[in-house]
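HUMAN: You are asked to prepare a plain-text protein record giving the amino acid sequence and the backbone structure tokens, both parts labelled.

ASSISTANT:
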Amino acid sequence: MPPEARGMDRAMRAAWGSLLVSFVVLGLKLAAWWVTGSVALYSDALETIINVVAAAAALVALRISARPADADHPYGHQKAEYFSAVLEGMMVLGAAAAILHEAYGAWAHPALPEAPFLGMAINGAATLLNAFWAAFLIRSGRAWRSPAILASGRHVLTDVWTSGGVLAGFALVPVTGWAWLDPAMAALVALNIIWTGIAMVRDSVGALMDRAVEPEVLTAIRRVIRDEAAGALEAHDLRTRASGHMTFVEFHLVVPEAMTVGAAHAICDRLEAALRAELGEAVITIHLEPEAESERRGVPVL
């Protein structure tokens, strides 16, 4: 199986795992709300419903992004993952709005929850499961360079913070008798979710707008060009972008005017191999130019 197929297969398994974990966590949180009647625990369960929908959306996006390039999409379908990430960010914001609405109602009519310790135990088990899964998704999304899996991990992590904050505030309710703590904690966590959702949407929209690769990746690309283009004189007009797990790199390479086409082509082959070894899956476009075209402001070649 080629590396790109293995990567997509891993991402699909992770997406199916997210859907399964989301259903299990949702069941536990609904049970915690049912035994307590707590608006904070209800809000926590509401946020997890969004996780289920988002996990399903990520599955669809990954299936679309796995399609090979065709006549209508010559650069592939990888950007479908970013649409999934934008959708998840919007869902996070929607969940936060719903939580704020429920918190306002409970603030206006406060009531002490029933069976608080049983509810905390059930919700705590769901939170631990989510924490382990979020760590796995974030680590895997970065390693596999999958924005859909990474966004899912960050989304699940917001659920972990939500549950942690809810449990912390909820634990004080039966001790103090302050019923208003329940909706107050729900409202505070909702504000944190809004911040996270805005960041998710901003990052995904930036990728859809063909934002350049991260600074550390760009530095690595420049280093490879500088070190591996022996025989050439200079590289300039370097442009980069990322689309899902694929990196696109374009630049002009200046070579001596007396160099043969075969020798120049060999330099390009060496550069492409070195860049793919550094970046993984990549589409690399190199435009050769004679020495007279040198701009003396690009990446000098050692």
